Amino acid sequence: MRRMIAIAAAMLLGSASAAAAAGAPNDAQIAHIAYTAGQLDIAAANQALQKSHNKAVRDFAEEMVRDHTAVNKEALALVTKLHVTPEDNATSQALTTAAVQHRNDYAKLSGHAFDLAYAQNEVAYHHSVNGALESTLIPDAQNAELKSLLQTGLKLFRMHEEHAEAVVKALKSR
Amino acid sequence: MRHPFPMALAALAAAGSLAAAHAATHHAAPAATHAPKTWTITITSLAFTPAPSGMRVGDTVQWVNNDIFLHSATAADHSFDVALPPHKTGSAKLTHAGTIAYVCRYHPGMKGQLVVAP
């Protein structure tokens, strides 16, 4: 359906920019990706809070719930204000599929093995989301307020990545 | 300069203000009349503004958190650890002189430092 709309738009406008626009996510999709990424990290953190007894891991997970909830609350307020309905898309779906797979895998682990798997995945997850924010989502965002929120998100998630790295290091040096 | 007191009186008479009276008192005994000050550091977009200069022991630092995130101002030397909820303010009294490095315990990329004179 999206491809059909894109082709129709390209035919209608008959321009290279329309074809390029078909490849780049629009603001409704960007908002959906950013929101989904946050919700998936909250779900991962909730699993950690159910399973982990390690203080550093639990503190980190609580921080993920708190910070991502705060960002997503802001994101919801923004899309409401802008009258944008977040639009599901292939990137959001791929993120969700991967996260569900990880959660299922980690459900079978416990103790130190779970803590390490969770923390290591948090490093990798934040790293890849930060890469997407930097290379695609922020440059492609059209609305200035959305762009600014994503920039704050990137700054925050970089610190999360750094914090997750410290947790992994501490877990490995046990 | 040989007669500071009459000069101060003259200044007081000339200015005829409370400010001049305060300046005259301060001139007479600077150390004893150091009034503790409150300094403000703000947090915006996951960063502390640089600390103002001139801090002294007995002064208070107030952090204003403009972010939507929970932060803290946590001293490396453990002399203060202030919780800073979203859109709230917290403060600490400076108890010793020196250069005090501090971070947000949740967001380790947030770093600051205070230079405190005796």
Summarize this entry quickly:
Chain A is mostly helical and 174 residues long.
Backbone shape of chain A: elongated
Helix content of chain B: 10-25%
Query: What is the distance, rounded to the nearest whole angstrom, between the alpha carbons of the first and last residues of chain B?
Result: 28 Å
Radius of gyration of chain B: 19 Å
Structure characterization notes:
The complex is a heterodimer of chains A (174) and B (118). With 174 residues, chain A is mainly alpha-helical. Chain A is 86% helix and 0% strand. Chain A is built from seven helices and no strands. The longest helix of chain A is centred in the last third of the chain and has 30 residues, at 111-140. The relative contact order of chain A is 0.15. In chain B, 19% of the residues lie in helices and 35% in strands. In chain B, α1 (4-15) packs antiparallel against α2 (18-28). Classes of the chains: A mainly alpha (174), B alpha/beta (118). The interface between A and B is medium-sized, with 15 and 11 residues.
